[in-house]
Design brief:
about 230 residues, alpha+beta, five-stranded antiparallel β-sheet, five-stranded mixed β-sheet, elongated
């Protein structure tokens, strides 16, 4: 979903926009700043929303290994210890990579290199964060990949990707976040719906912990003198 559409839907929940209306550019810009902080907070609760990008990597050396990743803008720390590691062929932050890719506009399937990739593999990859290595095994001029990163830097035209179950909670949460900007007092219904949506989302993301119980609670072992024991 486009960031601008997400903002429009949040403003409609607040009653700022009517059906069919779109937010102005300055309104979207203010809302994007709030959205960035909201998504950072969600990430601390392991509710991850990713920014999707399609990038093209020129294969200037033909076959071989290409490094993709991002290094800090400042290459030296406070103790003047400067980064001396490899410089990536493509400077971009990656959290996840899509399986489908394009080699010279021909659709291929990326295969993670686990030492048993088989035959007729055009591109394999290895993950060694913050870098990813793409091994190109065919002659080609460019590799187009779709990558996902945490949205620490987003703009109105960026595309966010998340499970369908996140959508309602995200829209309602953003509506509450930007309500003060538009001098709107959130309704009790909006507050209740947002709280319910977040609660359901967190419960759906939780993984139950199973413990082994040595006591025969709830376990039927047999039948003796007319009763289970």
């Amino acid at each position: 979903m486009k960031v601008s559409k997400l903002v429009d839907l949040a403003l409609k929940q607040l009653g700022v926009l009517a059906a069919g209306e779109n937010a102005k550019s300055d309104e979207v810009a203010d809302a994007v700043d709030s959205l960035r902080g909201l998504l950072a907070q969600w990430a601390t609760d392991r509710l991850f929303v990713y920014k999707a990008q399609t990038v093209v990597m020129p294969l200037t050396r033909g076959k071989g290994a290409y490094l993709v990743g991002s290094i800090d803008e400042c290459c030296c720390d406070q103790n003047d210890n400067c980064y001396t590691g490899p410089i990536p062929d493509l400077d971009i932050d990656i959290s996840l990579v899509a399986e489908k890719a394009w080699l010279d506009d021909c659709e291929i399937k990326l295969i993670r290199d686990l030492n048993n990739t088989g035959i007729n593999i055009k591109v394999t990859y290895q993950e060694d964060k913050p870098f990813w290595t793409f091994n190109v095994l065919d002659d080609a001029q460019n590799l187009k990949i779709k990558v996902y990163s945490l949205p620490s830097d987003i703009c109105a035209t960026d595309e966010l990707t998340f499970p369908d179950k996140y959508q309602r909670a995200l829209i309602l949460s953003l509506a509450l976040e930007i309500a003060p900007m538009f001098a709107v007092e959130p309704s009790a219904l909006l507050l209740r719906n947002q709280n319910s949506a977040i609660d359901l989302l967190k419960r759906s993301n939780s993984t139950p912990t199973y413990a082994k119980n040595d006591l025969p609670v709830g376990i039927c072992r047999g039948w003796h003198y007319g009763r289970y024991y």
